[in-house]
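ping. complex inputs:
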Amino acid sequence: MRTPICDLFGIEYPILAFTPSQHVAAAVTRAGGLGVLGCVRFNDTDELDETLTWMDENTDGKPYGVDIVMPMKIPTEGTSVDLGALIPDDHKRFVDETLLKLGVPPLPEGEGREGVLGWLHSVARSHVDVALNHRPVFIANALGSPPVDVIEKCHEAGLKVGALAGAAKHAKSHVDNGVDIIIAQGYEAGGHTGEIASMVLVPEVVDAVGPDVPVLGAGGIGCGRQVAASLALGAQGVWTGSIWLGTEEYRNLAGNKGWETAFLRATSSDTVRTRIYTGKPARLLKTKWTEAWAEEGAPSPLPMPLQNLLVAEAHNRINASGDPDVISMPVGQIVGRMNEVRPVADVMADLVTEFGEAVAALNKING
Amino acid sequence: MRTPICDLFGIEYPILAFTPSQHVAAAVTRAGGLGVLGCVRFNDTDELDETLTWMDENTDGKPYGVDIVMPMKIPTEGTSVDLGALIPDDHKRFVDETLLKLGVPPLPEGEGREGVLGWLHSVARSHVDVALNHRPVFIANALGSPPVDVIEKCHEAGLKVGALAGAAKHAKSHVDNGVDIIIAQGYEAGGHTGEIASMVLVPEVVDAVGPDVPVLGAGGIGCGRQVAASLALGAQGVWTGSIWLGTEEYRNLAGNKGWETAFLRATSSDTVRTRIYTGKPARLLKTKWTEAWAEEGAPSPLPMPLQNLLVAEAHNRINASGDPDVISMPVGQIVGRMNEVRPVADVMADLVTEFGEAVAALNKING
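pong. complex structure:
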């Protein structure tokens, strides 16, 4: 399985893996793909710096990438205290009452109150600066084109820049801004997603950006047949995410068994695309928490970055509680295929083997 | 391009085309696929009988199929007059006021008032009876398993029975009921659809029903790369629909240029999944009509079959007016790829050629 993406990055397989876990990212890289570490969870740049040092030391000299969350237009800035003042009391009350109703205990004193600041522009910029002191070969932005000066800075440092796109017109605009690689993320994907499904989106984006811009297919990729489908649609590689939540290496980050229970039992019908996580539409596991926000009388989610500040402590409490009925996590429709926890290397080997089988089956059909 | 579906039906390519137009259906069949005539628009069984006689005479002796709309559980029955009494006045007023606001003129006296009765169980049964007097090889049901006695009657007549499924558990239940072929219809499809996108749905359904039950991939198929992707996912053929609305043969049914204008300019972002067409979620072209129903204060759609009776005259008026800003038609996200009107045979030839190219590209990647 070899495309120009392999030569571009010096990797064996054109399989990129987005993950918040350095253990997963490093294992993907070691297995011949490109592990891409999600930086948004690092409020503390020193912690990111240490984590990337760990990545440098645990990837056998092979390449890896990082993922940031940086809107091109700068949204409301400020500390969590300043921004907190912009959150209506009714919203805070709804969150408190819902947590009470769902039986979610408070956090131990002093833990997890701050929320995720990686959504803030200034913090995302600091993530880029820290990353450039390490050896990532690729920087991807979950919210489209990063600002042009950030793209230029990365290019000067020899990195390729990728941007997620949920529509062909966004992909074209990213390319105009200097982005090198488009990640065409379909409706079925976990996290921030648009409404166009991969089957339609991928060839549209490929045709829109032309043959010189590599496109990665994202959304719904969890087995080798799906890798083959994405490459048949014209992608030069795949961008995976959800499936790595079901790996042994991810346990280092997950912290408790609740997440695994929730993922392993979920079907592809058990996700929902909603604005409650960050203020922008994102696909999450459907639980009592997402359902509470969909009930009549529930408040409308706030714009980014306020919504995440509103729910950050709630999410920390929910995830710490480990109740699989309530847990709140971005995940794609492929969660229906995550039915056992396996080592990253095994998942990777299966993707590659089944890709070959799918191509063989197509050849038989083609005669 | 040859799969067991080809031998099952005696067709050249495993490409099935659902269409309300006998001209399109016959042209697909003549071009080596399987044209499947949608019966729901025939309130008058004599008209269906004549149309199928025309199909018998215009398909060069090659096979074709029919499509019915029959819920397994019998919903509210009755004439349009009986059922009309169940429609709240507020709903009727909303429809009248919206049409006035959108500038949709009334129909000429005596035209199109009755609405589509094909959603009624009794009418769908009469469609089956009429079809069995002709020579279709396949009968597909848009709403899942038909009743078991209908399946048995079709089997006795030598027909294969197909059923649409939007989730693996529905597919399994269809097979238990005696259905022969599953049409795995993804979120991106036009008309009645579920929420799981094709990339995830197709392999899930294939794995759920096992190797002995052929699966057709439906939703998002408009070019040969998408055919290759669907077959890579494990489908034995594809079920197409929307793309045939952009053919010369379809002009016989469309009646005016408004539909073409609307389809040709639409992008893949210009559809919406809504209950306003029939009471069940179906994907339509996004226009001022669908937007009016999404506004605050608009009534909730009624259950099947009441919603279609409520809006039937409105849809006839809208479609007769030919205003592309208001037009109301089921269509999938693939509408973004419909950019010129072509003969059916050309569309078919391109699907086949591009399929071969996509397989060749995958072989190059596979080394």
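Chain A is about 40% helix and 15% strand.
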